[in-house]
Write a structure and sequence with these properties.
The structure holds 2 protein chains of 2 kinds.
Chain A (H helix, E strand, L loop, with lengths): L15 H15 L8 H14 L5 H10 L4 H9 L10 H16 L7 E6 L6 H13 L7 E8 L2 H9 L1 E2 L9 H7 E3 L5 E3 L1 H6 E5 L5 H4 L5 E6 L8 H14 E9 L13 E4 L4 E4 L7
Helix pairs in contact in A: 2-4
Chain B lengths: L1 H4 L5 E5 L3 H13 L3 E5 L2 H10 L4 E5 L7 H9 L3 H4 L3 E5 L4 H10 L3 E4 L4 H12 L4
Parallel strand pairs in B: 1-2, 1-3, 3-4, 4-5
Helix pairs in contact in B: 3-4
The chains are: A alpha/beta, B alpha/beta.
Chain lengths: 289, 132
């Protein structure tokens, strides 16, 4: 949109050969391919990542990328997929959920109790389905609790697509062949549709993060994934969204934000919780003041 | 020729009100070579076992409309071919009384959740007579 303006003057120079090399690398690792006509789009994002990582040249950044230091591939993918997502995105948070968060939550619950997990915004369903898949594959207690997963988004077209659960190779690039074989079936156009049982296991609803009345319907969540949306809001909306999310969590519940987002800069309501796999935010057990 | 030489897979009915739990058991058992059907409560399970043959039923205890105990009692009072269907009860309840009630209702075996993949496959193999 505002891509028509020139890049910043202190941006590092990137040659055509380097862009080509980079595109080949990106394609091999992610399946994402960009035509020469997208050169400006690529340059802008590359410049951003070079600056964000403190690299002094394309070469230095490319080395970082190839060794995947600091999960740079993930950061790079995220910068290229503003409006699309994929299964098992930011896997460290899913790992944090099954290694730390859920065990902390169920220590206060009886077996068979309900665990409510919310994915907002859920876009076309990759995130809530990833949560369900990850739980079945990685959490030994998955059958010991009544797990409810809700996926919400403001975009009803996205919700319709989520309920249909049809995905292309790019969305599935992080899933193993074994998981794809077990939970997805082929449909027309080379796409795959997620298992009917999985589709039925998630409630997809429309919700607007900054509409407090809308958000009142959503309460008592143990865990909320709200990733990569607050960055698009202005300060006032961001704060309002954070307050709404706070009310949707039960006391002691956790919220996971995107890798570049920090709740501490948005609202003082939450407590920072550092786990081995990720930093998440907790609604304190008891409200003070 | 290949069709007649391939033995039919043992067929298991998974009865649980949680779709994620059904899916988890199904995924584990299908990977282990079983054919899996599902029901969401005792009523649906009863309809299924009366309309098609199964080699085993895996049943949860707490379910809406018809719980696992009631289902097992109905199963055991059905006609002989259905009444003898082996049943594995899986529950979150670990008390002696629950185990006793499961046995009285007609469960062949009782497991307490969470059930690990290998444990599930092992018991299903034993109860269906499939070699491990």
């Amino acid at each position: 949109m505002d891509d028509s303006k020139g890049g910043s003057s202190n941006a590092v120079h990137i040659s055509s050969e380097q862009v080509q090399r980079f595109c080949e690398f990106l394609y091999r690792r992610t399946g994402m391919s960009f035509a020469e006509s997208k050169r400006y789009f690529i340059d802008r994002r590359l410049e951003d990542r070079i600056a964000a990582t403190g690299s002094s040249s394309f070469q230095e950044y490319f080395s970082l990328l190839r060794t995947d230091a600091d999960q740079e591939i993930e950061h790079l993918i995220n910068s290229f997929t503003v409006n699309e997502t994929y299964f098992y995105r930011e896997e460290h948070q899913l790992r944090c959920m099954t290694e730390s968060l859920l065990d902390a939550m169920v220590s206060q619950k009886e077996p068979g109790a309900t665990l409510r997990i919310w994915s907002i915004p859920c876009s076309t369903g990759e995130e809530p389905y990833s949560i369900a898949l990850w739980l079945m594959e990685n959490w030994p207690q998955v059958d010991n609790y009544n797990i409810e997963i809700v996926g919400s988004d403001i975009d009803t077209r996205a919700l319709k697509a989520a309920a249909e659960g049809v995905y292309g190779d790019r969305a599935l690039m992080r899933l193993s062949r074994d998981i794809i074989g077990r939970y997805f079936g082929p449909v027309t156009g080379g796409n795959r549709q997620i298992d009917e049982g999985l589709r039925n296991s998630i409630a997809f609803t429309r919700a607007n993060l900054i509409d407090s009345e809308d958000m009142m319907q959503y309460r008592d969540f143990d865990l909320i994934f709200c990733r990569n949306v607050l960055i698009y809001f202005d300060d006032a909306s961001r704060r309002l969204a954070a307050e709404n999310l706070y009310d949707c969590l039960r006391p002691g519940g956790y919220i996971c934000l995107g890798h570049s987002e920090s709740m501490s800069r948005i609202s003082p309501l939450f407590r920072v919780s550092r786990f081995p796999a990720a930093i998440v935010y907790q609604r304190p057990e008891a409200d003070h003041g | 020729m290949a069709d007649s030489a391939t033995p039919a897979k043992a067929k298991v009915l998974v009865v649980d009100d949680s779709s994620l739990v059904r899916l988890y058991y199904r995924s584990v058992l299908e990977t282990a070579g079983f054919e899996v059907k599902q029901a969401i409560n005792g009523i649906e399970a009863m309809e299924k076992v009366l309309s098609e043959p199964f080699d085993l039923v895996i049943v949860d205890v707490n379910m809406p409309r018809m719980d696992g105990f009631t289902f097992l009692r109905s199963l055991r009072s059905a006609t002989a071919d259905v009444a003898t269907l082996p049943a594995l009860m899986i529950s979150t309840e670990a008390g002696e009384q629950d185990l006793a009630e499961a046995r009285m209702a007609g469960a062949n075996f009782y497991l307490v959740k969470p059930v690990a993949e290998a444990e599930l496959v092992r018991h299903v193999c034993v109860l269906t007579g499939v070699a491990l």
